[in-house]
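Minutes, project check-in
Item: structure for the 380-residue chain
Input as provided by the requester:
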Amino acid sequence: MKTAICEMLGIDFPLVAFSHCRNVVAEVSKAGGFGVLGATSFTPKSLELELKWIDENVGGRPYGIDVLIPENIATMNEKNPTPASVAERIPQRHRDFVRALLAKYDVELPSASESYGADRPGRLNLQEEAALELLETAFRHPIKLVANALGVPPQSMLEMGRKHSVPVAALIGAKEHGVRQVKAGVDILIAEGWEAGGHCSEVSTLVLVPDVLRAIKPIRKVPVLAAGGIANGRQMAACMAMGAAGAWTGSVWLTTAESDVPEVLQRKMLAATARDTVRSKCRTGKYSRQLKSAWTEAWEGPDSPGPLPMPYQTVLSEPAMRAVVNAAARGNQKAYELATYWVGQCVGLVDSVKSARTVVREFMEEFAEAVEDLQALTQE
């Protein structure tokens, strides 16, 4: 195929796969798509190891990385905050709520997690300075894309991309966000709709993509990747029929054979329907789509103290979620009820474990079938 994204990224098929798992990234790229590694949870040292592994296993195919530099975050003006320093300011009411909720489901926080952050030393990579260190590490490798979410990338990030001739992409959830990003100088927009897993829009993908394309047309020609609820080639073809240059996907890779998502969470996803997700602030302090569970319901209940702003809610919730998943993996069925993970509404379209290569191949086949069907409609 020849689209703007294929030419910019040097790929055969404009299917982009976001994953925190290096194996998924490598397999998608080798199959003709484009893998993107979520780098926010790594340190520069650990990211170096991950990218070195990808370089050795991707067969020379292109790949990229994704970071998270929010424009609005409670620690914006702080220098080098750590999980521990952020945790010190979490209200006791919120600590007690989480501890009581876990106890109700027979889950105990490890002693290292009692301070909510002591079990994760190092810096929070949500600040510009820390994220740029990750990018400096990444640019020592042959990456072909850097992407940012939750705001306009800082100028330093855009300058790094230009210096290394690497396109900079930005995730957006509204047409006005797209206008700001294009004016700021980003190379690729990722229009992520309501259906998406993780941080997502209030607008459906079906509406968001053409809305963004129309809004940016008078400013500058920038390719737009459609994102949100896309799990097969027919959906991808539909988005490209609206004008998208390709698809950005994430949830469909969570249950692949190569995924490092814990088995207990994969099992919940494979059993879920499209109605079994919820958009909630209970994991990060910003709205993100995830599996419905006793955890998400409790944060919306009458006894909830209400989610804290990012990054406080993240530092509060992540040790608890690790304890929940570990307990569920050991057979605690009550903990299984609490377990949740970021996933889009397309979870209802995924009902079996497949290799990443198989998923890419099926995307290609279904895309071709959809194009043929549309062409047949125009024939006399």
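Outcome recorded: The chain has a mean pLDDT of 92.
No further action items on this chain.
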